[in-house]
Amino acid sequence: MRRVLTLAIEASNPSAVEPGQSVGTPGVAIGETVDGVPRVLGVELIALDRRHDDDLIPAIDRLMRRLSVRPREFGRIAVSVGPGGFTGLRVSIASAKMIAEAVGARCVAVPSAHVVARHAVSGVGTLKLGGPFVVALASKGEDTFVTLFDAGGEKISRGGVMDAAQVSALVGGSGSVRLFVADRFLPASIRAMLAAQNVPVLGPRFEPACCFEASLGLPEIDPIDLLPLYPREPEAVRKWRELHGR
What whole-number distance in Å separates Cα of residue 51 and Cα of residue 156? Predict the structure, then answer.
């Protein structure tokens, strides 16, 4: 019998949590695969009544104590790598690297859109439209970072930044999108266009258990190679290029 234990960290988009929301909040999960069969052993949510990043390591400790898991038992550290909040991503990724290096585990970089898609198709059974759907994250100005999935939650295309016109072409194309999953920051121009085309918008859920499930089948990497996923050129890089011409 081969058993692999995974610590999954999902704290990528704390600002997307709606007031009073009891699911899809930042947290950690521990899952196992025994001879390739996965199972979630437990979940611990991160307290939102203080800075979420302050409670990440304590949440991991609480969950490990509750499940009687020792650090050296972890073979994989999966972490939701964005797009997402600046601080949440960096604290999550730095913590994942530190733990992996300390216990000799490998890391798995899980795009946050995959976590959301996993919940959409299996977490609450809300996706019953029988067609492709979109997860939109990191909205800014008049555009958003779009990833297209099929009805089973498998990624169809790599994520990319799109405005309302580009999203409209995606929605109106062959194999039309049946659902948009996006938080309250989705640009009004895109939201209005979707309403006009009768495409429903569902709020995202960033479940720690779904981070574990979404990590299955993704490549394991060295902790040093674990990096956040940026949807756009960082502001500091843009300003440097404008000042120095490169």
Answer: 35
Give the pLDDT confidence of 186-195 residue by residue, as tens digits.
999 999 999 9
75-110 per-position pLDDT tens digit: 999 999 999 988 889 999 999 999 999 999 999 999
* Residue pLDDT, tens place only, 4-48: 999 999 999 988 876 665 555 789 999 999 998 999 999 999 976
Question: At a CB cut-off of 8 Å and minimum separation 6, what does 204 contact?
Answer: 13, 16, 24, 116, 119, 120, 135, 137, 181, 182, 183
Structure letter (DSSP) for residue 182: E
- Name residue, tokens 């300003």: 239
pTM as predicted: 0.91
**Residue 184 token pair:** 């309250």
Question: What is the SS3 assignment for 194?
Answer: helix
* One-letter amino acid of 163: D
Residue 30 neighbours by CB under 8 Å, 6+ apart:
5, 6, 7, 8, 40, 41, 42, 63, 64, 67, 69, 212
List the one residue out of 78, 123, 81, 117 whose CA is nearest residue 215: 78
Gap between the terminal Cα atoms of the chain = 55
Q: What backbone phi and psi angles, to 5 degrees, belong to 195?
A: -65, -40
pLDDT at 246 over 80: no
Q: Give the tokens for residue 157.
A: 């295309």
